[in-house]
Amino acid sequence: MITTLIFDFDGLIVDTETPDYVAWQEVYAAHGVALPPEVWAINVGSGHLFDPYAHLEAQLGRAVDRETIREQVRARFCAELGAITPLPGVVAYLTAARELGLRVGLASSSSRAWVAGHLEQLGLLGHFEAICTSDDVARTKPEPDLYLLALRRLGVEPGQALALEDSPNGVRAAQAAGMRCVAVPNPVTRLMNLHHADVVVPSLADLPLPALLARFADSR
Question: Which pLDDT does position 218 carry in this prediction?
Answer without folding.
Answer: 62
